[in-house]
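Schema walk-through. Below, the input block comes first and the output block second. Nothing else is stored per chain. Lengths vary across the set, and this one has 165 residues.
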Amino acid sequence: MVVLRTPARKAIFLTAVLLVVAGLLIFFLLVRNNAVSKNTAPASSSTHTTAANSADAAAAATAAAYMKLVTIIGQPTVKMVSGTTFEANGQVKNDDTFQHDITLKITLLDASGHVVGTATHLVDNVKAGTTVSYSIQGTASQPAWTSVEVAVVKISENLNGAGSD
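--- output ---
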């Protein structure tokens, strides 16, 4: 137990306690700030990044609207052709009333969900309302994979009814 007999000793003791508490508070704030934010980009880039994110969001919204024009039928079948070359076969349907060119991307994933192979393919001139087959060949970084994803990455030709095909 601390016995403080004079007001001067009490003032010194309280000042020391406040300095220790303030030092600990500053230390924890610095550690927290350093752990949470490792951003080394200059402050002026935040406006550019926000504008780029807005443009990306708008492009993604437009792409999502166009993707509704197409249906991927089932899951593609994938086989290793030779070495690390794979072939994916499947079907895609044009649900629109206009002909479109449809770009597909096949992604092979390992058991951890890491990408081990990709391939992109243009399915050209898919007539309105039709289902067509596609065959895509690509190269994998390894011959073993556990799952496959197929995605429509682009729809072109006759968007919004514009075009002569």
